[in-house]
Write a structure and sequence with these properties.
single chain, 4-stranded antiparallel sheet, Alpha-Beta Plaits, alpha+beta
Length: about 100
């Protein structure tokens, strides 16, 4: 399993209605992709970067197949009309802590 994290700031004076409509469309597209397990969105309560999305994929190959396709290229191009300071990271499990640790119930 891998996580593709993306952070960004919204452009000044962004059309929030258009951005929200675009984001809703993106989420709908993402969750239909083969190998997609989960999609999360967060806001930074301390400021910049303003937004983070995390897409959890079954494998790096699943993400790569999607990333090479037209749907991802369109999402990426459209995002640049709303955002700046866009950064991508791809994370995999740690060999020292491959599974989440949660408190005992």
């Amino acid at each position: 399993m891998i996580e593709k994290c993306m952070t960004y700031d919204l452009l000044p004076n962004v059309d929030m209605k258009a951005y929200q409509e675009w984001a809703k469309k993106v989420v709908g597209t993402m969750v239909k992709q083969p190998g997609m397990l989960e999609f999360r969105g967060n806001r930074n309560v301390l400021g910049s970067p303003l937004a983070r999305t995390t897409a959890v994929w079954r494998s790096l190959e699943d993400w790569a197949k999607f990333a090479e396709g037209a749907e991802w290229r369109a999402i990426d191009a459209e995002l640049r009309g709303f955002a700046t300071n866009i950064k991508f990271e791809i994370w995999g499990p740690s060999p020292l802590l491959p599974e989440p640790v949660r408190p005992a119930k």
